[in-house]
Amino acid sequence: MIIKGKKNRYLRSQAATMKPVIQVGRDGITENLLKQLDILIEKNELIKVSLLQNTMVEPQDLIDALSEFDADIVHIQTIGSKMVFYKKASKIKNRKYSIELEKM
Predict the structure, then answer these.
(1) In CATH, what number is assigned to the domain containing residue 60?
(2) Looking at the domain assignment, is residue 104 inside a domain?
(3) What was the pLDDT predicted at 100?
(4) What are the Cα distances from residue 29, in Å, to 21, 66, 83, 88?
(5) Which residue range is the domain that position 66 belongs to?
(6) What is the pLDDT of residue 85?
(7) For each of the chain's 104 residues, which pLDDT tens digit applies?
(8) Entry's Pfam families (predicted)?
(9) DSSP secondary structure code for residue 93 in this structure
């Protein structure tokens, strides 16, 4: 799934003030990290991830790993070592951003 135009701009603007919820360090991309990211993105719909300086992981590696783990997770933006991901929540009570996206 690819999000373009107004929807992408909206999600980027919402993520601008967010702090990273997970930092990827020297352990790199593990199964546990992917599970935690999936739980967080299911709860919040929009998350920001930071790559620490001591990691050997490149941003594209994390993007590829997440898309393999769950095809519904969408990469929104990468700036330096910070990345933003979005996934529509399956529970209605967790939907905040997807309601706004549907209005567009």
Answers:
(1) 3.30.110.60
(2) no
(3) 75
(4) 15, 9, 14, 23
(5) 5-99
(6) 93
(7) 677 788 889 889 999 999 999 998 888 888 998 999 989 998 988 999 999 988 888 889 888 998 898 888 899 999 989 999 999 888 888 888 887 777 77
(8) CRS1_YhbY
(9) G
Q: How many domains does the structure of the chain reveal?
A: 1
Q: Is the pTM of this model over 0.85?
A: yes
Structure tokens at 62: 């994390």
Note whether residue 28 is domain-resident.
Answer: yes
3-state secondary structure 23-80: EECCCCCCHHHHHHHHHHHHHHCEEEEEECCCCCCCHHHHHHHHHHHCCCCEEEEEEC
**Tokens for 91?**
């529970």
**Rounded Cα gap, residues 9 and 52, in angstroms:** 26
Contact 38, 13 (CB under 8 A): no
